[in-house]
Every structure is written in structure tokens, then in C-alpha cells.
Amino acid sequence: MLRFISKRLRKGQKASFSSIVSTITVISITFGTMILILSVTILEGFKGTVLEKLFSVEGHLKVSAYDANQYIEQNPILLHSELYDNASSLEGVEHIQSFANKSALIKTDDAVEGVVVKGISTDFYLDNFKQNILDGGSFLNFSETNYSSDIMISQQLANKLSLSIGDDIYLFFIQDRPKERKLNICGIYRTYIEDFDDKVVLCDLALLQKLNKWGDTLVGGYDVFLSDFSQLKQGGELIYDKMDYNLQMDKVTNLFPHIFDWLTLLNKNVIVFIIIIFVIASFNMLSTMYILMMERANMIGLFKVMGAKNSQIQRIFWYHGLSLALKGMIIGNIIGLALCAIQYYTHIIPLEPENYYMDYVPIKWDWVMILFINFLICLLINIIILIPSYLITRMNIIKAVKFN
């Protein structure tokens, strides 16, 4: 019965001022829901894409020899340590790989460019890195008897030095007695992570071992990949306990603070944005319910005269407010999810990769967060609806019947 009265109430307000206000409320909830869905899916898309690209070239944790003065190059450590050999048995550790870094100059006929040569081996996490290799290129071809003469450079370096796949380049390694090596570009990669693309080239770890006279039992360090980035702190403590006393560990959040500061800023901006949307939607719903009750004061008075309880009258207006909210939420979800799907499949909205680490607006389907947003909107609106409905309990019956 109460729902029937609420439905008749909606039909009876078509020509009233409250009808206009109700329409505005539905529109505001529609846009609020749509914008919140877009904000969450885009934010999660940004975070996921940036972290995916970062972890395709760097581990969550970096282990190397302790040296307070080291900057790019590392002191050697044993390849087959307890940590390296038993990493697969450690909880939360997905992969571990060896590496070494060395400074060098790339020389072409027209230019010279300083780079960091990162030596990698057959334990390199190629599944993560494949997404960065541009069409036409291939990965390093490792040799069992000697070091590979292949090298991979970034598209940024290739453009700067006018290089392409198949070209030979000369690397001059900076050490006590500078050495020159001729290598062949087997592939070109692009991550959009400026710190990496601007200066890092990939080569066979065996080449750097030979230049450093380390032998094949020594490396510069390990990149450790965790199965869950959110467990970085726990994973770091576990790795730290398994390390030898002469090693040090760095977290990716300390190695690339500007990237994580940027992601934190995005989170804060979205939180502020969500609060503003909620405030606007709540204000509109509050205004609508208050105006509706003032317009229906006579009806409220008559219901009270006929013996209706305050709770029954409140439920009539609660049903009415909830119907407005659900209508706005349904339309907002349809529009928001449709826009997300269009961007997800077409990449119609581009970005400047130099500023955003990607060339289009990414979308991540976080259904748990989308459902949580809808639940939060519904809960908040239910609370807001109850506030003006308490006016019913304070209405004087005689004044309400006479109200005009």
C-alpha cells in the first residue's frame, strides 16, 4: 500500500515545482555515478598500466653488494647464493633474475650518447618484457660458448641516434682501460618510462662479466619480482632475512619515487573529486525531499488525521526518494560502463606518452570497486533521505492540513 501511494505521489507531481527538482536530482545522480565509475576505472587503469610497464623492466626489489659509494655500477656478488637458488621456494616471490650495469658511450657517425648498459642472462623475465618490444624486433640471442653480440635499445635512443634494427653500433665502456665493442641492434623497445628509455640498453650479461673479468660465477645483483605488489613490505622483510650480511636491498618505491608520488597524487585527486560528487548529489537529494514534503504538507496532515503513523508516512517518502536514486544510478551505470567499454576497445582518447607513460587513456575493469561505489551511493542517499523525513514527526496536524 505504501509503495502504491508513493507511486501515485510521483505521478501526481508532474506539473509541480518538485517535478523539476526531482529531474535535476536524477540528472545529478546519473552524472555523479557515471563520473565516479569513469574516475575509478581510469585511475585503476593508470596505476595498473604504469606499474605493469615499470615491472616489465625493474623488479619489485633490487639486491646488490653493499657499497655506500656505488651509483650505477655494482661490486660483484655470487650468482649462486642461498637467496638466488632458493627464491622459488619463498612465499610471495614470483621470479628472480641476475643483472649487472656498466656505463658506456654509444658512438655513431653523427653523435655520441652516454648510456647505462644493463647485462641480462637467460633468467631474464621475458614474459613481462615482451609487451615492450616493437614490431620487427627480437630479443637477445644468448650464446652458450661466448657472449652474444646482440643489443636492444629504446625507441627514444634509436630516434635520437638515427638507428634501426640490424644496424651495428660501437660501445665504448668507461673503465681504467676503456674498451670498445661492436654490437648489432636485434630489437627496439619502448616502455615510456623515461628513466629507462632515455639511457638503458640491454645486452648479454656475459659481455659485462668478461669486461669486468668476473667470470660466469659473479653478477652485479638480483631483481626480485613478487607475486603481489601490495605485499612489498612483507616481501622486502622476507628477502632481507634471506640475504647475506654483505648485501643491501632497495625497494622499487625508493628507486622511482617520482612515479609513486605521481600515483599517490592521482589517488588524492580522485578522493577529493569523489567527495565533491557525493556532496553535490546529497545536497540535491536533500533539497528534493524537503521541497516534496513542503508541497505535500496537506497530504501529510490528512494522513495523520486518518491515523497514519509517522513511520508509515516516512516510508512513503523514502520509497519516492529511493526510486529517484535508483533511476539515476541505473542510467549512470549504463552510460559510464558504455563510455568505459568504448575507450577500452577503441582507445579513442589519446595521451602524450612523455607525460603519462602511455599513449591512450587506460581502462581497468575493477568490478569490486564499481560495486562498492554503487553500494556507497545507495547507502549515502538512504541516509540523506531520512534526514528531511524526520520533519514529518514534528509537523503540527492542524497547521499541516491548513498549509498552502
Shape: elongated
What is the CA-based Rg, rounded?
31 Å
User: What is the chain-wise order of helices and strands?
Assistant: HHEEHEEHEHEEHEHEEHEHHHHHHHH
Averaging pLDDT over every residue, what do you get?
82
Main sheet strand line-up: 3-4-8-5-7-6
Number of strands: 11
What is the domain tally? 2
Helix/strand structural class: alpha+beta
Helix percent reads: 40-55%
Strand content: 15-25%
Which stretches are poorly predicted, pLDDT < 50 over at least 5 residues?
Answer: none
The largest sheet is: 6 strands, mixed, barrel
Cα separation of the termini: 26 Å
Number of helices: 16
What can you see in these coordinates?
The protein is of the alpha+beta class. The chain folds into two domains: 2-53 and 259-402, no CATH class; 61-253, no CATH class. Helix content is 52%, strand content 18%. It contains 16 helices and eleven strands. It has helices spanning 2-11, 17-54, 82-85, 126-129, 155-161, 194-197, 205-212, 232-242, 252-255, 257-295, 297-305, 310-346, 353-356, 367-389, 391-394, 397-402, and strands spanning 61-65, 77-78, 93-107, 112-120, 150-154, 168-173, 179-189, 200-204, 218-219, 221-226, 247-251. The strands form two sheets. It has a six-stranded mixed barrel. A hairpin with a 4-residue loop joins β3 and β4 (112-120). The longest helix is centred in the last third of the chain and has 39 residues, at 257-295. It is elongated and about 100 Å long. The mean pLDDT is 82.
